[in-house]
Design goal:
five-stranded parallel sheet; globular; binds zinc ion
Length: 492
């Protein structure tokens, strides 16, 4: 099965296959580490995770490179304000970023590349650009890309840049779409700023050159796919193409994937609107990492996602159903044999699931057949018409589902615990939901002990104590379910 993915460059849905027939070489723009990641950032990383997981599920080997921008205008501004060098300012946010990715079960790319560790490669690329007539130095010692040297500029974002002023320059890393100008490749040293010695003069790289240099370092001059948030399409990705292709005269990336913005409650997320959320904000409110993952991936990447707290509650309920069903199928005892109806339902679910993902990663459509299968199977189990052979088949489909969605196994306690711990050391205690505070320190063992004590109390007809334990656990967010196989508990 081959993935058909929308390609911003060609403007159509194209098949995505490794050009070398071996591994799919892909580059995705990583974070700029000047603050904690917000859910808009994580939507992009999660959708790229869906892409790489689906490729792997179809047997495609992936070589995925992601950069860490650990030097740029914002980092320099913030570290100066904090009175520390950038090398002391960024590590906290790099660490936080990886912790957040882990909480969201985002797989690590095969290669992580930090900008500050690739300065020589960037300098070398600027030197090549100069030789190609596409870079020039200004009086202050900075280097700029000459847009007039690259007539194809604008081919990715399909912008009409005919009104562009020839030779007009912009030296900030991020700029608006109406100001397509010669952009900074290398910024001459300024008092108090981090800088590096280089044959092109002492200075520091612009943001765009880092991705070109590192992508080509690890993936070659021409590779399969470049991905990132839609906000990066212009100018960042357009600039990456210009910098790379001016030197190599080969297509930089053949396929470009852009993940759309998300809205929060129908509005653009912004601190001034009061609808700006980092992952940590949501964890501290008591939402589970798995529910955040599912809510952020369930709307296909090319659609605008309107994030609401209701969508998290819905995701949480869907995960509960999946986990309960998975446990029921795994632990139930079923007679040997197969139910033909279930076997057919399994085949249908698998085909529809894979087809939906192969169709431009339609995660919304991919979910539906899984929940259909869940309903049909639950009915069969209730009627005693579900057999051991059905179990194997159903679990196989659930495994394929979880190879991409990754929400069935309950790993939610740890990210929440870490977020609460972080809040305590970061002056954010006031933001921790009360039930999370109560739950802190309540380990699985402690819960098991209380559950066992309750069972004993009931046996000895000490119902007052049994009720007291149930209440105590409920206050700490632990739900008990009595069943004929004993007591099950789960965290709310
Ligand atoms: Zn980039």
């Amino acid at each position: 099965m081959t993935l058909r993915l929308f390609n911003t460059l060609s403007g159509q849905v194209d098949e995505l296959v490794p050009a070398d027939g071996k591994a799919l070489r892909m580059y995705a723009c990583g974070p700029t580490v000047y603050d904690y990641g917000h859910i808009g950032n994580f939507r992009t990383f999660l959708q790229i995770d869906v892409l790489r997981r689906f490729l792997k599920l179809t047997g495609v080997k992936v070589r995925h490179v992601m950069n860490i921008t650990d030097v740029d205008d914002k980092i320099i501004r913030n570290s100066a304000a904090a009175g520390i060098p950038i090398s002391e300012y960024t590590p906290k946010y790099v660490e936080a970023f990886f912790e957040d990715l882990e909480a969201l079960r985002v797989e690590r790319p095969e290669q992580i590349a930090r900008a500050t560790e690739h300065i020589p490669q960037m300098v070398e690329l600027i030197e090549k650009l100069e030789k190609a007539g596409a870079a020039y130095k200004t009086e202050d010692g900075s280097w700029y890309f000459r847009l007039s040297a690259f007539p194809e500029y604008g081919k990715l974002s399909k912008k009409d840049l005919s009104g562009m002023e020839d030779g007009a320059r912009v030296d900030v890393d991020e700029y608006e779409k109406d100001s397509a100008r010669d952009f900074a490749l290398w910024k001459a040293v300024r008092p108090g700023e981090t800088s590096w010695d280089a044959p092109i003069g002492r200075g520091r790289p612009g943001w765009h050159i880092e991705c070109s240099a590192m992508a080509m370092q690890y993936l070659g001059d021409s590779f399969d796919l470049h991905a990132g948030g839609e906000d990066l399409m212009f100018p960042h990705h357009e600039n990456e193409i210009a910098q790379s292709e001016s030197v190599t005269h080969e297509p930089f990336a053949r396929h470009w994937m852009h993940v759309r913005f998300l809205l929060v409650d129908g509005k653009k997320m912004s601190k001034s609107e009061g609808n700006f959320y980092t992952l940590r904000d949501l964890l501290l409110k008591g939402y589970k990492a798995s529910a955040i993952r599912l809510a952020l991936i369930s709307v296909p990447y090319r659609h605008q996602l309107n994030f609401t707290f209701d969508s998290l509650t819905e995701a949480s309920a869907a995960i509960d159903r999946l986990r309960t069903f998975h446990e029921r199928v795994t632990k139930g005892s079923f007679a040997a044999g197969e139910n033909e109806e279930i076997q057919l339902a399994v085949k249908k679910a698998r085909v529809e699931y894979m087809e939906a993902l192969a169709n431009d990663l339609n995660t919304a459509e991919a979910r539906a057949p899984i929940f259909d299968l869940l309903r049909v199977s639950n009915t069969a189990i209730d009627q005693g018409k579900f057999y051991a052979g059905d179990r194997e088949a159903v679990l196989g489909v659930l495994a394929a589902f979880d190879a991409v969605f990754d929400v069935i196994e309950d790993r939610d306690a740890e990210p929440t615990r870490r977020a609460v711990e972080w809040a305590e050391t970061s002056g954010r205690q006031a933001d921790v939901a009360p039930e999370l505070l109560a739950r802190q320190g309540l380990t699985d063992d402690a819960i098991e002990t209380l559950v066992a004590e309750r069972t004993q109390a009931k046996k000895h007809r000490n119902f007052a104590r049994a009720d007291q334990i149930r209440k105590e656990l409920a206050e700490k967010g632990i739900i008990l379910e009595d069943s004929k196989d004993g007591v099950r508990w789960k965290r709310k």
